[in-house]
Amino acid sequence: MNKKLVIMSHPLINHKMAKIRDKATNAKEFRESVSEIGALLTYEVTRDLDTKEVEIETPIGKADCHILDMPVVLVPVLRAGLGMVDGIHNIVPTAKIGHLGMYRDEETLEPHVYYAKFPENLKKSLVIVLDPMLATGGTVSKAIDILKERGAKKIKYVGIVGCPEGVKRLQTDHPDVPIYLAALDSHLTDQGYIYPGLGDCGDRLFGTK
Ligand code: URA
């Protein structure tokens, strides 16, 4: 089983990473940058999407073209995953959106599901799980468990910042699911934060702290 881990280091992504790591960045700029990083990661994540050949009439003549031939489902893990949806949806406007509401018990750090709603046909779709922070890996792993139970066969995980603990957990639980991140940080703190990370992503997106 191939354990694929892609850390997308690119000047545009790295520039926006500096912005979202900066504690002085306000919520508006933070939201915009998270969304834009999501869009930039999509380029690599969708590289192997199925396409089909079509013939298109240009104003001058006929052109052989390739159009997408595979449904895409985005599944943001609430709430921080919502911050990545718009950027990706702009690039893949035909994508359907599922929602998975999960929270981490602050003491045990274990994930709990409180809401799950997905479009039909997960089986035939590329299902992209979105959660900006791959911390313990428990939340994303559980999200993927649920999607597999609902029939999803081709799943990819896309986040922004990860740490070795989260990557290891996800690769152990779901070695078939490729991981795409913009950065891989040093470690997880005792409080469950990624170090140096960017703080609480949900709070920074939605201004709750
Ligand atoms: N979730 C966050 O929002 N930030 C972290 O550093 C870890 C988990």
| SSE order | EHHEEEHEEEEEHEEHEEEEH
Which strand-content bin applies to the residues? 25-35%
Mean pLDDT: 96
Radius of gyration using CA atoms only:
17 Å
Number of structurally distinct domains: 1
Q: Determine the CATH topology.
A: Rossmann fold
Ions and ligands: uracil
Give the second-level CATH assignment, the architecture.
Answer: 3-Layer(aba) Sandwich
Task: Report how far apart the termini are.
Answer: 41 Å
Report low-confidence residues grouped into runs of 5 or more: none
Number of E-type strands: 15
Principal-axes geometry comes out as: globular
Helical proportion? 25-40%
Computed structural class: alpha/beta
Q: Biggest sheet, open or closed, and with what strands and sense? A: 8 strands, mixed
Number of helices: 6
CATH class: Alpha Beta
Task: Describe the structure in your own words.
The protein is α/β, with parallel strands linked by helices. The chain has one domain: Rossmann fold (3-Layer(aba) Sandwich), CATH 3.40.50. The chain is built from 6 helices and 15 strands. The chain has helices at residues 11-21, 27-45, 82-91, 138-149, 164-173, 201-206; strands spanning 5-7, 51-57, 62-68, 72-78, 96-97, 99-104, 111-117, 126-130, 133-134, 154-158, 161-162, 179-181, 183-184, 187-188, 194-195. Strands 1, 4, 5, 6, 7, 8, 10 and 12 form an 8-stranded mixed β-sheet that branches. A 3-stranded parallel β-sheet has the order 9-11-13. It has a two-stranded antiparallel sheet with strand order 2-3. β4 (72-78), α3 (82-91) and β5 form a beta-alpha-beta unit. α1 (11-21) packs antiparallel against α2 and α2 packs across α3. The radius of gyration is 17 Å and the shape is globular. The protein starts with a strand and ends with a helix. The mean pLDDT is 96. The structure holds uracil. The site of uracil (URA) has 10 residues, from α6.
